[in-house]
Write a structure and sequence with these properties.
heterodimer; A: 224 residues; mainly alpha; 78% helix; B: 228 residues; six-stranded mixed sheet; four-stranded antiparallel sheet; 8 helices
Chain lengths: 224, 228
């Protein structure tokens, strides 16, 4: 399985490097949204729960762009057939796609979060950075696993661009809620508060449940 | 399974929704032999290849490919079948070499096989160009390299010489032609060329078997009748 995951992940990253389709679009969308919030809210700086909400809603919608494109090459260029002919565990495709999406999210956040701090955030980000990284890691795993699962469901339908947000957004409400609640005290104006462990635990449990669910049903999604 | 049978089909049926694409297809193919499949567009030729490749589930009948009963034992045949279709199954943004390396890793094939395969299809000079920048004939040659990279026991070829000039067809003959010695299922619209390639001829019309005979026992006229 490790061999197949490595091959698939390497291929996905190489294709993204050549086409530059997903990551630049996601990053540009994030920055544009922060600018829209900047003018829409008529505020030059945000903090606390409002800042956390703006950050996570933006990252969620940016993720939808990448999730929509995740399996496009497999359908349009015969990648599914090529993969299904190989003597490998089919779950390796789930793992590789989730890791590729995770990599895209991390790359986008390397651009989007400094942009958020520059354009909208009132308090300094440095003090809260280690705790914020923990929240980002758990939320990104949730986005990657659930996004991969939904993308695999939607890709074989004719209305895949519509199906992804319709299925994905309700499933990701708990992730965004928990991530925003965990992030809010970190972005408080009077200095970063303690990281709420309860919301981190909810994120971890949600990641685990959907990880197991995706592992259980992914094989069936590849059947004709 | 009879020891030397590569294919055993008994009453194979496959539908798309309510529409039958294959009905009651029954045949045997011995290892090392070539089945050439004729039939007008929509007769079920490509569907037959995709069922044999394990990409489509058979809905009826007993289907064994290389001794593996489909779909339950399909995993046993995976990696032993090579498929060449109208789609090259190659990523356009990657080069032929990168595509073959990817498939080599998936099939557990030694990396050195990639250069051998590129050499065999006479594509080494353009091996590092993206597939999107190659001519259709070159893409077809790269697709052949992909299909035989893992030295499959069964080759499924959907009009393999489409897009190829005579010189390219000659280059590929040792890999996918009669001289390859492989068990093959080849679809064709060319009665003369197809009969020369095959040992057994299968004619499909409307998803049903309209002709099944050793090629030595039929002539081009019988094949042409399938298209009238």
């Amino acid at each position: 399985m490790r061999r197949a995951v490595g091959a698939l992940l390497r291929k996905d990253l190489l294709v993204e490097l050549r086409t530059k389709e997903a990551v630049p679009a996601m990053a540009l969308f994030s920055i544009s949204t922060f600018v829209v919030f900047h003018f829409g809210l008529d505020r030059s700086s945000l903090d606390g729960s409002l800042a956390a909400g703006v950050l996570w809603v933006t990252l969620l919608f940016a993720a939808v762009l990448g999730i929509n494109r995740l399996f496009v090459a497999e359908v349009e260029q015969g990648g599914f057939d090529g993969f299904l002919l190989a003597p490998v565990d089919r779950t390796s495709l789930l793992v590789a796609k989730a890791l590729a999406l995770l990599a895209f999210l991390v790359l986008v956040q390397l651009i989007a979060i400094p942009a958020f701090a520059f354009l909208l955030l009132g308090p300094s980000l440095w003090q809260a950075l280690p705790e914020l990284l923990a929240v980002l890691a758990l939320a990104d795993i949730g986005l990657a696993v659930i996004g991969t699962l939904v993308s695999a469901i939607a890709i074989r339908t004719r209305a895949r661009d519509l199906i992804v947000p319709i299925l994905l957004l309700p499933l990701l409400i708990p992730v965004v809620l928990a991530a925003a609640q965990a992030t809010a005290p970190l972005l408080a104006l009077d200095g970063a508060g303690p990281l709420p462990g309860r919301w981190l635990a909810i994120l971890a449990i949600y990641d685990g449940v959907f990880g197991l669910l995706a592992y259980a049903i992914f094989d069936f999604l590849l059947e004709d | 399974m009879t020891a030397d049978l590569a294919l055993e089909l008994r009453g194979l049926g496959r539908r798309y929704g309510e529409r039958p694409a294959l009905q009651d297809v029954t045949l045997d193919l011995q290892a090392g032999r070539t089945l050439v499949v004729f039939g007008p567009n929509g007769a079920g030729k490509t569907t037959l290849l995709r069922v044999l490749a394990g990409l489509l589930r058979p809905h009826e009948g007993d289907v064994r490919v290389l001794g593996a009963r489909l779909p339950d034992e399909g995993w046993r045949a995976r990696g032993r079948v090579g498929l060449l279709t109208h789609e090259p199954l190659l990523y356009r943004e990657l080069s032929a070499r990168e595509n073959l390396r990817f498939h080599a890793r998936l099939h557990g094939v030694a990396p050195g096989r990639v250069d051998e395969a590129l050499e065999a299809v006479a594509l080494r000079v353009r091996a590092d160009d993206p597939i999107a920048e190659l001519s259709r004939g070159m893409v077809q040659r790269a697709a052949v390299a992909r299909a035989v990279l893992h030295d499959p026991a069964l080759l499924l070829l959907d009009e393999p010489l489409a897009n190829l000039d005579p010189a390219a067809a000659e280059v590929l003959e040792p890999l996918i032609g009669r001289s390859s010695g492989r068990t093959r299922v080849v679809t064709s619209h060319d009665p003369a060329g197809g009969l020369a390639e095959g040992d057994i001829a299968l004619g499909l019309r409307g998803g049903r078997v309209a002709l099944l005979a050793p090629v030595a026992e039929i002539d081009e006229r019988r094949v042409r009748e399938l298209y009238t």
